[in-house]
Amino acid sequence: MTSSLARRTVLAAGAAGLVGAAAGPAAAAQRSAAALIVHNAQVFTGLPGARPVEAVAVGHDGRILATGRGRDLRRLAGRGTEIVDARGATVMSGIHDGHVHPLSAGDRSLRPSLEGAETTAEELVAILTGFLQDTPGQEPEGWLVVSDWNPIGLLPHGTLPHHSLLDALPTRRPVALIGGDGHNIWVNARALEIAGITAATPDPVGGKIVKGPDGQPSGVLKDDAQPLVTRHIPEPGKAELVAACARVLAQAAACGVTTMMDALVGQSELALYQALADAGSLPQRIVPAIRIDADLVKDPKAALAHARGLRHSFRDVPGLRFGTIKVFLDGVIEYPAQTAALLEPYLDGSGHPTDWTVPDTRPTTAVSCTPPDRNTGG
After folding, report:
1. Which residues pair with 328 in a beta bridge?
2. Model's pTM, two decimal places?
3. Helix axis angle, 267-278 relative to 300-313, nearest 10°?
4. pLDDT tens profile 287-346
5. pLDDT in tens, 91-137
6. What does the alpha-carbon distance between residue 268 and residue 277 come to, in Å, rounded to a whole number?
7. Are 106 and 62 in contact (CB under 8 A)?
8. Residue 348 — left, alpha, or beta (φ > 0 → left; ψ -120 to 50 → alpha)?
9. Beta 55-58 vs 34-39: how paired, if at all?
10. Can you tell me whether residue 256 is helix, strand or coil?
11. Rg value, the chain, Cα
């Protein structure tokens, strides 16, 4: 059986990868016939100093049998072998993404997006008004949640976000703009009211409620203060979310991504991966970084027991490869979040020192580590 890559220019091959593939067909000939032979290609093996070769043969178990010249590897062909003419395209091992949030991408795809745009206040109001007009049946209680807000994108530069701008929108609905950086959220007064956030609300551990000179909340919440609002936002239906995440994972697979380290995972995310696997919509291997919340950090034994418990509960989900936990020690130094604790004050936009260092009690970076009895699953 012969087929072609047609218009494709890159083929991501083999979960086992091309690194360490047999140098020639001699040893592989002793095995069963190949399931797939790709020839007329530029095969990147990943071996030190090696130049691309012409062809690759893959066994029925998904492992690389051999790489080399096309006419040599054709000897591995059997009656059921698929032979692909790559037409000079590149063939390489699947891509491993070491830090990504694929489920968040699926969730965000269900919302309107600002796409990180820089806008004036007037332009932003016009865009958000359009989003409101697209969902007229949501008045007055339905949340307007917009993804990919640029926290430094208000023009002219230096203009600070405040709930009063969102309050001017022609709606009674709660409004939330989710920062594309993952560290900031901007909401209107209605959302603050629903969340019960006032001048008297203290900053949670690991987060900050931005307040103005009058002590009143501005509508911007940073890092672990964001859940004060987001926990009130209705979640999409399970079927809708599974379908959205399946589309994201399929797109990643089409781009050659075969393994991902999901950098922030809890029980709900693991349950979603289980649903995706059950639906046959989990084409990648996923390395989940199990988040250890601030209250568990103080008790390492309990934290490890928590991670092991989640691993035990979801150990049979195909594609999950446990062995990583994630502990937040602090926030980030990027503007405008600046939730990391520093020994010296932050600088302002002109490079001058401020009085802002962040108290040591506020959790700068996230640390990922592996439990001693890890089960990586390969």
Report:
1. 366
2. 0.79
3. 10
4. 999 999 878 888 999 999 999 999 999 999 999 999 999 998 778 888 888 888 888 899
5. 998 999 999 999 999 999 999 999 999 999 999 999 999 999 999 99
6. 14
7. no
8. beta
9. antiparallel
10. coil
11. 25
